[in-house]
Amino acid sequence: SYVLTQPPSVSVAPGQTATLTCGGNDIESKHVHWYHQKPGQAPVLVIYDDNGRPSGIPERFYGSNSGNTATLTISRVEAGDEADYFCQVWDSSSDHWVFGGGTKLTVL
Amino acid sequence: EVQLLESGGGLVQPGGSLRLSCAASGFSLRDYAMAWVRQAPGKGLEWVSAISGSGNTPYYGDSVKGRFVVSRDNSKNTLHLQLNSLRTEDTAIYFCARTASSSWYFSSWGQGTQVTVSS
Fold first, then answer.
1. Out of A48, A101, A102, whose CB is closest to B105?
2. CB-based contacts of B60: which residues, under 8 Å, 6+ apart?
């Protein structure tokens, strides 16, 4: 089955840029979606179809996808961005939705 | 406004069964594929099951296939998940989620219902 790999943690100072990666075999051939989740809350979609932004998500959130790595870039990081971030794809070969293991973003 | 409200969670012994429900409002269930996603304590998200908008096509994750059954009652705008032969590793918060109409992501989520499998 298809596997998505995310680093367990990323730390960044306020105002700096956070780069969160999601690795998968030929992931550029798939649409990648990103969610953030704060403690005790449901996940929230922040990027869909590689680089689409749902309404209400700031332009500071940017997605890209190339080769074997998809990337979520958060510029001018704020304390409120601290959360767990999960990438997700649809694997058509197995008809499965697949999540990455998640990255905990810490704002120093 | 889209709202999803899960119910039916609880404490059950290994080998037991539970039926989860997800009441949808603000949209018609028949127009969207729906899914269940779970999160074990301190762990990440795991897709569990999904069902097509028509209700004709169910999908299951490998860890639950043969034990869980997804269904929908479009007349009541409600999604269900029957959990059978429960194991301790099924302990998790179970979220109901709506897929997008044009792609395979989850555009809306419920707040979840806790399932605890323990003797």
1. A48
2. B48, B49, B66, B68, B70
